[in-house]
Amino acid sequence: AAKQKEGYAPIRQDYEDFYTRRMYYRIHDTFNRPICSAPDAWIDVMRRTPVDGQKPLRLTGSSQRCLNLGSYNYLGFAAQDEYCTPRVEAVLDSLGWAASAPRSDGGTTPRHAELERLVAEFLGKEAAITCGMGFATNSAFIPLLAGRGTLVVSDALNHSSIVAGVRGSGAKVKVFDHNEPAHLEAVLRAAIAEGQPRTGRAWKKIVSGGGGGMRGVVIIEGIYSMEGEMARLREIVEIKKKYKAYLYLDEAHSIGALGPGGRGVCEQLGVDTADIDVMMGTFTKSFGSCGGYIAGSAELVQFLRCQCPAHLYATAMSPPAVEMVISAFHVISGRDGSGRGAAKIGQLRANANYFRRRLLELGYNVLGDWDSPVMPIMLFNPAKLPAISRYMLRRGLAIVVVGFPATPLLTARMRVCISASHTKADLDYALEVFEEVAGRCHLRYCDRATALRH
Ligand code: PMP
């Protein structure tokens, strides 16, 4: 652990494979099967059956209808939508399925430019750039923002795409305890005292105007996907200002889902987006599509456009996927005139808080903050993962279970993602099953009074 504080530990492929990847692929009757419907509130999960007693079990043609507590479909846009679907179909007719070229070589349509304009406007930034994949938005753009000699101070539980980007950048990396501003400050102070960290060429003059004497880049997330917890953004912004560091915020799970207008963790916590130098996010969760974005100053975005190989040499986002995000933005921001956006955001929050409260009342150890639609429920022992997943599936709940290396080895958990498209009846059904499971699998960790003080 001490070594890890110095930076990222080397990848222990065998160790990781032994515990989880192989285990996951050897177990065939849990929620790791293909699904054969849109990831709406309910999904069809394919069944597997033994064929002549052989393993692996084969998929059969039949499927099972399950309540979907596994998808990141926070606002319910991933299935049909009365406003979005006709627009996506119209773009499919006019522009086709695929961009079939990189952005700078004939892959840009007016819809790509419109999406980038909308992202920047929604976040109150000068400009934005999009990328075909959320993971690649971090892993391919961070190496442009940091390089040899750059100090990167990264939250210990940052997503694997951030880790990949930082590792690929060759920057000097320091890791701070997850969401602990006091430790961030200590790490930043010590790293600055150690030498003369630079911020890399991209940062020098183009982020937040000026940048002279800036000393390092702090990277955090809006909602941590395995913790369900929001960044302690106010304190972190204070620290980054005090030590003259830049702030890079990944809003994959928070954009669209937090704040009364869906504008993310800044709106939720009352932080000015001007204090966030680089805002990253994905379209794969609240927007029901694919791809990611970076928003910031016009000069920063222009620099990335000209320099990032993933922008210059990767095929652009498919036009219907772009249109899906644009129309979801219209609904979220009320531009469609229906008021459904505000209603969806309100419903998501009500659903999330109802489900969290009831789980706590049942005695579950639930991580994360109120208003967060991501709810990790602790199992601790990784041996419980397949049993719980199997039991839930049998009772009609599709639920994700997560263990090492996505979490530390002895903090295995299941994770519920709540959607605005879940009805109260859906959530009550799930809670009935959770009540059963708590008894069967010895999952009650706290009494009701302790839970509600949480
Ligand atoms: N950042 C974070 C914090 C994530 O949780 C994820 C994936 N869930 C990504 C980036 C990658 O996004 P995508 O799935 O859109 O590739």
Describe the structure in your own words.
With 454 residues, the chain is of the alpha/beta class. It folds into two domains: 2-68 and 340-453, Aspartate Aminotransferase, domain 1; 84-332, Aspartate Aminotransferase, domain 2 (3-Layer(aba) Sandwich). It is 41% helix and 17% strand. The protein contains 17 helices and 13 strands. It has helices spanning 2-5, 13-26, 84-95, 110-123, 134-145, 160-169, 181-194, 201-206, 233-242, 265-269, 298-307, 309-312, 319-332, 340-361, 384-394, 424-440, 448-453; strands at residues 42-51, 54-68, 127-131, 151-155, 172-176, 217-221, 246-250, 278-282, 292-296, 374-380, 397-398, 400-402, 412-417. It has a seven-stranded mixed sheet with strand order 3-9-8-7-6-4-5, sandwiched between helices. The protein has a three-stranded mixed sheet with strand order 1-2-11. The chain is globular. The two termini are 28 Å apart. Residues 447-454 have low confidence and may be disordered. Bound molecules: 4'-deoxy-4'-aminopyridoxal-5'-phosphate (PMP). The site of 4'-deoxy-4'-aminopyridoxal-5'-phosphate has 14 residues, from helix 5. InterPro entries: Aminotrans_II_pyridoxalP_BS (IPR001917), Aminotransferase_I/II_large (IPR004839), AON_synthase_class-II (IPR050087), PyrdxlP-dep_Trfase (IPR015424), PyrdxlP-dep_Trfase_major (IPR015421), PyrdxlP-dep_Trfase_small (IPR015422). It holds the Pfam family Aminotran_1_2. This is serine C-palmitoyltransferase. Its cofactor is pyridoxal 5'-phosphate. Residues 66-433 form the Aminotransferase class I/classII large domain.
